[in-house]
Automatic annotation (TrEMBL):
It is found in: Cell membrane. It comes from Vitis vinifera. The chain crosses the membrane at residues 463-482. This is Piriformospora indica-insensitive protein 2. GO terms for cellular component: plasma membrane. GO terms for molecular function: signaling receptor activity.
Amino acid sequence: MKPFTAIFHTTLVLFILCLGVYCDGDGDTEMAPMVAPMEKTEQEALYSTIQGFVGTWWNGSDLYPDPCGWTPIQGVSCDLYDGFWYVTALNIGPVQDNSLDCAHNVEFKLHLFELKHLKTLSFLNCFISPRKHPVTIPANIWYKLAGSLESLEFRSNPGLVGQVPTGFGDLRKLQSLVLLENGLSGNLPTIIGNLVSLRRLVIAGNRFTGHIPDNFGGLGELLILDLSRNSLSGPLPTSFGGLSSLLKLDLSNNQLEGDLPSELGNMKNLTLLDLRNNKFSGGLTQSLQEMASLEDMALSNNPIGGDLLSLEWQNLQNLVILDLSNTGLTGEVPESLAELKGLRFLGLNDNNLTGNPSPKLAALPSVTALYLNGNNLTGELKFSGWFYGKMERRFGAWNNPNLCYPVELMSSSHVPFGVKPCDQEVTYLEPDTRTKLGNENGNADQNFHFMASLGFSSHAIDGLWWVFLAEISTMILLWNFFS
Ligand SMILES: *[C@@H]1O[C@H](CO)[C@@H](O)[C@H](O)[C@H]1NC(C)=O
Ligand SMILES: *[C@@H]1O[C@H](CO)[C@@H](O)[C@H](O)[C@H]1NC(C)=O
Ligand SMILES: *[C@@H]1O[C@H](CO)[C@@H](O)[C@H](O)[C@H]1NC(C)=O
Ligand SMILES: *[C@@H]1O[C@H](CO)[C@@H](O)[C@H](O)[C@H]1NC(C)=O
């Protein structure tokens, strides 16, 4: 039964009783504590707190005389402790149409810290003007909520500036700390590493600088760690091996550097590893292959270097997204990648990969995007025309100057975009000239490459192209002959 209905029934019963028997005295004073069994101090603290955020026009005692009962306030939840209502959740900001929107001159009233049983506190889009009205988080008072607060969130508050107060370190019951897309800056406070009950720590999209504190690795209960989109620098602490429960690790878009620590392999339950757009180097650590739950590995845009052959990719059977583009990779594309049956996205573009890509890659059953462009792959691309037709531009092999596709495909309508046909046709077109010229092999081939790199893409394949090709080849061969 909802509190409202309960109270309504109680009131109704009392009313009927009053009608039926002799009712004496002042009903109001008798009934007030039953209708709104809320301590005066708690009620006043709630009104004052909200007024600080939404503006002085807001008169709580007028508008919401019974905030936990029959006049509920949007964004406020209550619970009964020893027969009295207490506020357990306070959500400020435009979540719903009738939510509490923040005023321009928003301020933290210290009454907030008098709410004895507050478990959840969140601010969405509340502090919005960093120039006109910057607001800092109050310091040295959070200990008052230490016994109750489990979830603290500040989302999309560009006007919330300054540092994270060390007072957050007192919130020993905190399970979720979300500081997402605010104007906060400074170092990540080491004290957060003491919040050992944390299961979610999101400090993304602010302006934090400095190193990731070593003791974050002691947050053994953590399931989600997101420090993305700041300006964090320095190495990934080896202590991160202690985050063995972690499901999601997002450190993308920072300036982190150094090796990927082998301790990452301890994160056996990790499903997301996003380290994109940093400065990590030192090669792909072999222990990555121990992250058997991994579904999404995104390491693109890091000077990682090394090769792909050192990992047994077939161990990562849950991989769905593998993005290793622009990571300075060298060496060949291993066939073991073709054993990742669930893989949908494979990005190996813009590296220095060499060798001939195995046609087994085209047999990846779930693949919807496969990028090999911008490498130094060589030889004949032996994927099927059906595959090129299915993938269209979601298969990328362009910008591999020494890669070509078999001539037989030229008659089909599906050829890999930006890849030239192989050059056997020169021999085929000009067998006589060639033999006459006394087996000057090599030259003709090189010239063909030159032509292809002028931009004769697969789109130019028609009768005219053949004629043109024959003419140019003859010209080049003659030119070679006379020079
Ligand atoms: C709210 O209104 C009541 C009268 O309706 C008044 O007594 C009280 O002072 C007001 N409170 C605030 C905080 O303005
Ligand atoms: C990993 O997940 C499994 C299954 O959900 C769970 O039983 C196990 O405790 C988790 N491991 C860690 C280190 O949290
Ligand atoms: C590939 O290697 C060449 C020569 O070793 C180097 O100049 C180039 O920058 C490398 N390209 C990439 C994308 O790493
Ligand atoms: C591409 O590979 C060839 C050998 O296969 C090598 O000679 C050439 O320097 C490489 N190009 C780049 C840009 O690394």
